[in-house]
Amino acid sequence: xxxxxxxxxxxxxxxxxxxxxxxxxxxxxxxxxxxxxxxxxxxxxxxxxxxxxxxxxxxxxxxxxxxxxxxxxxxxxxxxxxxxxxxxxxxxxxxxxxxxxxxxxxxxxxxxxxxxxxxxxxxxxxxxxxx
Length: 131
Prior knowledge:
Blueprint: H1 2-21, H2 23-30, H3 37-62, H4 65-93, H5 97-130
Helix pairs in contact: 1-2, 1-3, 1-5, 3-4, 4-5
């Protein structure tokens, strides 16, 4: 299951790179218009930098046993909020066909990452009792 966690980290990296190096195209897809340097700076920072940071944190921590459980827990929380707010946006603004795939992906990621975290906790509990 750690493979999936790493895959999700890679998805964040790819998305962040797309937003960083193809800002105009990414913004247009997301419904943004980058009119000024201020908007471009914010898009680069939040969509590029934040996603790259999240992806890198997920990947790097997945190779360090002492960081893995906390990283997965953190990732499960923020992934859940992404899915919840995507659902809320559909309720508030209506279902946006272009973002249905994003909702499915965000829900899938959130559920999967929670599953990974619960398995890590279960394995840790079993190892503690075997000692």
